[in-house]
Design goal:
Helix content is about 50%, strand content about 0%. By secondary structure, it is mainly alpha-helical.
Length: about 80
């Protein structure tokens, strides 16, 4: 906390993603990469930033559920 503000970040020093070659030419993968503007050369950095943002959102959601006492309840209800 700095001056009353909350700062949350995720550090992912090595994220291996691909936006060309391999399975990226398959129809579903092509469509998904195009939808987020990450299909083709030079788009791996943008794709890795989206991956990191998604991870951060998941971590924040998990922390919120834990703080609210809902994490254990969800596991019991869903049988996980």
């Amino acid at each position: 906390c700095v001056d009353g503000d909350l700062y949350i970040c995720v550090r992912m020093p090595t994220v291996e993603v691909g936006t060309v070659g391999g399975g990226t030419s398959l129809p579903c993968q092509t469509e998904a990469l195009q939808m987020i503007g990450c299909k083709g050369d030079g788009k791996a950095k943008k794709f890795s930033e989206i991956v990191a943002a998604t991870v951060l959102a998941g971590e924040l959601s998990t922390l919120a559920a834990q703080a609210a006492g809902q994490l254990g309840q969800a596991h019991k209800a869903l049988g996980r």
